[in-house]
Amino acid sequence: MFEHKNVYPVILVPGFFAYGEGTLLDKTFPYFGTISAKATDIIKSMGMDCHTADFCLLSSVWDRACELYAQIVGGTVDYGEVHSKKHGHEQFGKTYEKGFVENWGSIDENSEPVKITLIAKGFGVAVARVFLDLINNGNEEERAAGSTNPLFLGGKKNHVHCLVSLAGINDGVTLMSIAEQKIKNIREKFVKGFIVAEEIKTYKKFTELFDFSKKPIQVTQYGFCAQKVEVQPEETNLQQGEDFLVQEGDKSPKGKKKKVKSKLMFDEDAIARYIDRTEDNVFYDLEKPALDLINARCSTFKDTYYICAANSVTTNLFGKINVPTLKAGLTFPTAFLIARYENYLPEYPIATAEIQENDGVVNTSSSLPPLNEPIEAYKNPDSCKPGVWNMTPIQKKSHLAYRGVFVRPDKYTNQVYDLMKIICNLNTV
Questions:
Q1: Hey, which residues does 306 pair with through a beta bridge?
Q2: C-alpha closest to that of 356 among 390, 307, 314
Q3: CB-based contacts of 220: which residues, under 8 Å, 6+ apart?
Q4: What average pLDDT does the segment 109-132 reach?
Q5: Residue 252 forms beta bridges with which residues?
Q6: Which residues have a Cβ under 8 Å from the Cβ of 123 and sit 6 or more positions away?
Q7: Residue 205, CB half-sphere, CA atoms under 13 Å: how many?
Q8: How far is Cα 52 from Cα 120, in angstroms, rounded to an integer?
Q9: Rounded CA gap, 415 and 429, in Å?
Q10: In 323-389, alpha helices (H)
Q11: In degrees to the nearest 10, what's the CA dihedral of 359, 363, 367, 373?
C-alpha cells in the first residue's frame, strides 16, 4: 500500500455516453480504461473499493444524480414526485438490490465517517455537482410535497471527500449546436439510438446482439417503446449475412426461400414529447443555458475538496485562426468544427471565438471551474483547500485520453496511480 492519509471508496461517474457496472460493455470495453487498463481494477489494486456508475443515456443531469444516489446506497431510483410530474415521466426507475457503499455516511471502526470520492468526466461532472447539491441541501419542492427520500431531505454534510473534474462540462458545449445545424433531426436519431443502446446494455452475452427479441424495448422512466416488426415479405435468393428473419420451410413456388425483413418501430409521439421539452432532457443539459441554471444553484462545500483538469488539442495560428493539432487524434474532425464555430443567431447559444479552444469534444473554457466559484492553482496535496477548485495546468491531450483511448496501458495505469495518490493524501476534513 502506498503512503496515504486516508482511503475512501471511489465512484467513477461517466459522461454523456454513459455505461457502467452490470453492463456487457463494461466487462470488455470499460468506460474508464477501454482497451488500455480498467481503472476500477487499478484503483482496487491500491487498496480502495471502486465502482463505475451506470446511467440511462436519455436521463438529464437531475435524473442521473438521482440514479447515482440509488446506486451508491441501493434501492429504487426516485426522481422526485414534483420533478416527475413537471417533466412528464415516471417517478421511479430501476431498483439496485445492493448499493456500492451501503454504509456510506456511517461511522467506521476507527470512529471516522465513511465518505466517498467522486471522479467524474465530461457530462458526469455536472451530474456529480447536482448530486453534491442535493445530498447537502436537498430540494425544497420535493420536501414540501412530502418526500421522505433522504436525497431530497439533504443534510448529508461531510459525506464526499473529493470531487475530481476531468474535462468537465461546467459552462455548456458548442458541439451539440454544431451537430444540430449540420445533421437534420439529430436529436431524434440520438434518441432512437439510445433506446436501442439501453436494450443492449441489459444483455449478458454477445450472441444476444444478433438476436433482438420481439418483446418491446422499454426505457424505464420515460416509457419509450420500440417493437420489432415484420414488413412485407419478398421472394429473393437468401444471401449469407443479410439482416432478415427467415421463415424456415417457407418456400415460394420457384423454390426460393422467402425472407421477412424486420425493423424496429419506435413510439414517435413519445420521442417527440421528449425532444420538445425545453428542460430535463440530456441535449438541453449539454448547452450553456442549462449549465447557467446549474451554476446558479450549485456551489462548493467546505467539507469537500475539488480538483479540476482541462485539456486542449487546438492551437492559434497567427493569433487569429484556431486549428486542431495532431494531439486531437480521433477527435480531429470535431476539434476542427468546434475550433471554427461561432454563433450569434438567437436559435442557439451565443458562441464567440474566445471559446473555440477545445479538447476535441468539450470547449476548454467549459472545463475550467465555474466562474462564480473560488479557484486556486494546484501545487501539491498539502496546499489544497476544501471548498476551493484546485486547478491543474491545462494538458495537451484529447477528451478521450481520460478514458484511455489510444493511451499505452502503462501510461494510463500511471495516470490513475498519480491521481489516486493526490486524492488519498489530501488532509482529512
A1: 163, 389
A2: 314
A3: 56, 90, 93, 94
A4: 95
A5: none
A6: 15, 16, 18, 61, 169, 282, 285, 286
A7: 2
A8: 10
A9: 25
A10: 332-339, 364-367
A11: 160
Q: What's the pLDDT band for 123 if we cut at 50, 70, 90?
A: very high
- How many residues can be counted in the chain? 429
CA distance 336 to 358: 9
C-alpha to C-alpha distance for 338 and 182, rounded to whole angstroms? 13
- Please give the grid coordinates belonging to residue 178: 454544431
Name residues whose C-beta falls within 8 Å of residue 21's C-beta, 6 or more positions apart in sequence: 51, 52, 53, 54
Q: Which residue reads 439533504 in cell numbers?
A: 154
Q: For residues 192-204, give the mean pLDDT.
A: 84
User: Do 213 and 141 belong together in one domain?
Assistant: no
pLDDT attached to residue 237: 45
Q: Tens of pLDDT along 11-57? A: 999 999 999 998 988 988 999 999 889 999 999 999 999 999 999 99
pTM (predicted TM-score): 0.90
Instruction: Assign residue 386 the CATH number of its domain.
Output: 3.40.50.1820
What distance in Å separates the CA atoms of residue 99 and residue 114, rounded to the nearest whole number? 14
Q: Specify whether 105 is located in the same domain as 222.
A: no
Question: How far apart, in Å, are the Cα atoms of 216 and each of 56, 58, 213, 227, 333?
Answer: 17, 17, 8, 5, 36
How far is CA 286 from each of CA 61, 169, 282, 290, rounded to the nearest angstrom? 9, 8, 7, 7
- Distance, in Å, from the CA atom of 134 to the CA atom of 363, rounded to the nearest integer, reads 27
Q: What are 56-104's pLDDT values in tens digits?
A: 999 999 999 999 999 999 999 999 999 999 998 999 999 999 999 999 9
Are 300 and 404 in the same domain? yes
**All residues at 6 or more sequence positions from 152 whose CB lies less than 8 Å from its CB, including other chains:** 80, 134, 138, 139, 142, 143
The band of 2, judged by pLDDT with boundaries at 50, 70 and 90, is confident
Q: Is residue 32 part of a domain?
A: yes
Instruction: Count up the domains in the chain and report the number.
Output: 2
Whether 325 is in a domain gets the answer no
Same domain for 262 and 294, yes or no, is: no
Q: For residues 169 and 167, what is the distance between their CA atoms, to the nearest angstrom?
A: 7
Mean pLDDT is lowest, of 117-126, 177-186, 233-242, for 233-242
Domain that holds residue 49: 10-173+278-312+362-423
User: What is the Cα–Cα distance from 321 to 314, expressed in whole angstroms?
Assistant: 10
